[in-house]
Design goal:
The chain has 413 residues and is of the alpha+beta class. It is built from 16 helices and 16 strands.
């Protein structure tokens, strides 16, 4: 887990601002769910055999006996809120977005933290593949807005409960023939969740899966048509996409469309997917609601920040046009009031009001790149006046305290 300082927070704010602007245009409403949820929510929703639940989820028992978990992702939380607050009765689609921290007990490595941040968009209530395409469009454009230029989308369909069982039989048969070469996790997954073997990052398993059966060849008519229309939308948008027949995403609730978006550079591939998501048509019913289709995407904020900062120098603060310097107790008191009046007038002013030396304050003004310095000494404070000094030429002008804000505004034009 890590502390985040201003040099990173400037990027966090930029990302959230872009999300908010796109959310407003596409009519997504922001939602904030609790950081702690019932652990069962993620065990049922995300899947008991997923790495997130088996290895990465922080869970705890309270004194009252509740089994809680720090949220490792937000989609189950969004669906829980959707059911709990009766959003099922509202006109569809229900479109929600979020930005906040999540927690996973991952092995520390570049770009990965145990507390990190995600933003995401969820659309509930519409089964049409145009929703899948619109979420890809929204995410792709946010990433472009943030300066990512070499984006590529990997896409696949993992079918649904009608056609996936037939594919699983074919996949299990193939993997069993290679079981001696699989990692221990994948040998266990053969019994519990064979699709997860396609998501394994072990090098020897990666080699084996290249020749594995492809689910795209086993899709039922409905899933085939859904995926076909989704790809036609991407073609119409002229988006760069690659069919990755072994992309399954690591979560049990996905159905039909799955996708990931990468920056197609060496640094980008090292960071991993910038965004990933897909359709989850069975999740609402699984968590106790009515049968409701859904589709969403999540994006890791720290990964974006790392890439946005890479190769860029820390931005220098913009020069301060006006700086207030004061000398003496009365000047300090009146200077504090004057600063607040500038704030009310929305005029930015630099200051070092904690300092007593005029020389020291003038040096601070020079370092800040101030064009004008307002000097408020003991004499000026008694007479309710201020000296306006132009730093470059040294020219000075004395104005009344009541006129100083309007005079600064006039000079700043």
């Amino acid at each position: 887990m890590h502390d985040i300082f201003e040099d990173e927070l400037v990027y966090f704010r930029k990302i959230k601002k872009a999300c908010s602007r796109f959310a407003d245009f596409y009519r997504y409403q922001e939602i904030r769910t609790p950081i702690l949820e019932q652990a069962e929510l993620f065990e049922k929703g995300t899947g008991q055999t997923t790495d997130i639940v088996e290895k990465e989820m922080y869970s705890l028992r309270t004194k009252g006996g509740d089994h809680l978990a720090l949220r490792p992702e937000l989609t189950p939380s969004i669906v829980r809120a959707y059911i709990e607050h009766g959003l099922q009765a509202m006109p569809k689609p229900i479109k929600l977005w979020y930005f906040g921290p999540v927690f996973r007990h991952e092995k520390p490595q570049a770009g990965r933290y145990r507390q990190f941040h995600q933003f995401g968009f969820e659309s509930l209530g519409v089964a049409d593949s145009v929703v899948d395409a619109s979420i890809v469009l929204l995410t792709f454009n946010i990433l472009k807005e943030l300066g990512f230029k070499h984006l590529v989308i990997e896409v696949n369909s993992i079918g649904d409960k009608q056609c996936r069982p037939y594919f699983k039989k074919s996949l299990v048969s193939y993997l069993r023939s290679k079981s001696s070469s699989l990692c221990a996790d994948c040998r266990r997954r053969l019994k519990q969740n064979p699709l997860r073997a396609l998501d394994c990052k072990e090098e020897k398993c990666q080699r084996i899966k290249k020749s594995a059966p492809q689910i795209i060849d086993h899709l039922c008519k409905e899933c085939h048509n859904h995926f076909k229309f989704f790809l036609e939308f991407l073609d119409e948008l002229d988006f760069p996409y690659i069919l990755n027949a072994h992309l399954v995403r690591g979560l049990d609730y996905y159905t039909k469309t799955v996708f990931e978006i990468y920056e197609d550079t060496k640094e980008g591939r090292e960071q991993g997917a910038l965004a990933g998501g897909g359709r989850y048509d069975d999740l609402v019913k699984l968590l106790g609601g009515k049968d409701t289709p859904g589709c969403g995407v999540a994006c890791g904020v720290e990964r974006l920040v790392n890439l946005m900062r890479r190769g860029k120098k820390e931005k220098e603060a913009p020069p301060t046009a006006v700086f207030l310097a004061q000398v003496g107790d009365l000047a300090k008191r009146k200077g504090l009031v004057l600063l607040d009046n500038f704030r009310k007038s929305k005029v930015p002013v630099g200051e070092a009001i904690h300092k007593d030396s005029l020389t020291s304050q003038l040096k601070s003004a020079d370092r800040a790149g101030a064009k004008y310095v307002l000097i408020l000494g003991q004499k000026e404070a008694l007479e309710d006046k201020v000296i306006i000094r132009e730093m470059k030429t040294g020219k000075q002008k004395i104005v009344g305290l009541k006129r100083v804000i309007s005079e600064v505004k006039r000079k700043a034009r």
